[in-house]
Design brief:
Largest sheet: 8 strands, parallel
Bound molecules: fe (ii) ion
CATH topology of the largest domain: TIM Barrel
CATH superfamily of the largest domain: Metal-dependent hydrolases
CATH class of the largest domain: Alpha Beta
Structural class: alpha/beta
Helix content: 25-40%
Strand content: 15-25%
Number of domains: 2
Length: about 425
């Protein structure tokens, strides 16, 4: 018997409503009217069924730590890094784990079933690494967690940074991270990229670097990352996260840079909520937005996905881990509110994210993992507009989160209106 049938779903690329049948954790049939028994049957009533949301950039070791030990008064990236440094000696494994699992429940309720989380490797105890490896294992039935070894204080700038990075990777962290713009000099930044990319080759790992997260138009480490990607044959396996300096770069330089990034099949991860919060903080007026040039990158055929980056931590005091909120901010901050652009931004928090993470079996096709979300919305643009209720979140053919449909009753004299904003 089938595990699950979702009936009457709207699916991207299908012209009429379809049923989706799942067995052994996989999608086994997608067709207009499936007549079979199943343990669970859901009637989607014409609403959008999508593959799960993917957060391609997050910090799970810091999440929900806002106010510990103090609030970020300047709102800058650098004060955030300083506060995190003050907090690190007081972190406990129990505290990190409790906050991470709370965040994961939020993520699942919002339909996010894959998160790439950076984890700080510059604490000599590597406590957060151990805790998040444990969380990755304990939660794998419910969510894909991919960990990036992230040398927050600089892999060369921090004492024993390289040795700690190697130890974290030996323990089983999935991806090599970096932060070249935070090294002591531009040259050290370039050197860190070379060393870390070579380390990834030796170990057969992907790379995802915090790169050029500043408003300095001369921060051009993405050029070096692109160069080593080509040199080492790592095409498609590298991600440049943030790339906010690109906003302020010279236009001629960018016209040379983007085709090189396309050649290297660079994945780019933009973090609209947090970039809008942290960038331009040193400006008076006008204040720069400080996001990478997403429409121009996409026009070059470069894969761009979006990340939440932070939820209630030293860098961002808000958030519920709703990836549609991220895409919504992106639509405004990037001037991507056109209908087709909104649809692409929806993809940036679903399929593009899966591409950045290299997730196997992702998608709404026969043979893919039976991981899906039924939204209280009929289309991607409606989802972008209303940030709808995630009616059902399905993992490997089983419902793991359910939220009742939200309808408001508005009483205008004798008339009662049911309002669902559609
Ligand atoms: Fe980040």
């Amino acid at each position: 018997m089938l595990e699950l049938i979702i009936k009457n779903g709207t699916v991207d690329g299908q012209s009429s409503l379809v049923d989706i049948a799942c067995k052994d954790g996989k999608i086994v049939e997608i067709s207009p009217a499936i007549k079979a028994d199943a343990v669970t049957i859901i009637d989607a009533e014409g609403q959008l069924v999508t593959p799960p949301f993917v957060d391609s950039h997050f910090h799970m070791d810091a999440t929900l730590s806002m106010g510990m030990p103090r609030l970020n008064q300047s709102g800058t990236l650098l004060e955030g890094i300083k506060i995190w440094g003050e907090l690190k000696p007081d972190l406990t494994p129990e505290g990190i784990k409790e906050r991470a699992i709370k965040l994961i429940t939020w993520a699942i309720a919002k339909g996010n079933l894959a998160i790439r989380s950076h984890v700080d490797t510059t604490d000599p105890s590597l406590m957060a690494v151990d805790v998040l490896l444990e969380v990755r294992e304990e939660m794998k039935e419910f969510i894909d967690i991919q960990l990036v070894a992230f040398p927050q204080d600089g892999v060369l700038r921090c004492k024993d940074g390289l040795a700690l990075m190697r130890r974290a990777l030996d323990k089983g962290v999935d991806v090599v991270g970096g932060i070249p713009h935070f090294e002591r000099t531009m040259d050290e930044g370039h050197k860190s990229i070379e060393i870390l990319c070579e380390m990834a080759v030796e170990r057969g790992l992907m790379v995802d670097m915090h790169c050029d997260e500043s408003d300095d138009p001369h921060s051009r480490h993405i050029e070096t990352l692109t160069y080593h990607t080509q040199r080492l044959g790592l095409q498609g396996r590298i991600a440049g996260s943030h790339l906010t300096s690109m906003h302020s770069m010279d236009n001629y330089y960018v016209s040379k840079l983007l085709p090189l990034m396309a050649e290297a099949q660079m994945n780019c991860v933009c973090n609209p909520l947090v970039n809008m919060n942290l960038q331009g903080r040193h400006d008076t007026y006008p204040k720069r937005r400080g996001l990478m040039r997403v429409p121009e990158l996409m026009a070059q055929g470069i894969n761009v996905s979006l990340g939440h980056d932070d939820v209630m931590d030293p860098w961002y005091p808000m958030g519920t881990h709703d990836m549609l909120e991220v895409a919504h901010m992106g639509a405004h901050a990037l001037h991507m509110t056109g209908v087709a652009q909104q649809e692409i931004l929806f993809d940036a928090v679903t399929t593009h994210g899966a591409k950045t993470l290299n997730i196997e079996g992702y998608g709404l096709d026969i043979g893919c993992n039976a991981d899906m979300v039924v939204l209280q919305a009929m289309s991607k643009t409606e989802a972008m507009r209303v940030h709808p209720t995630r009616l059902y979140v399905i993992r490997r053919g089983k419902i793991i989160s359910q939220t009742p449909k939200v309808v408001a009753n508005v009483t205008l004299g004798d008339d009662v209106h049911n309002v669902d904003f559609m």
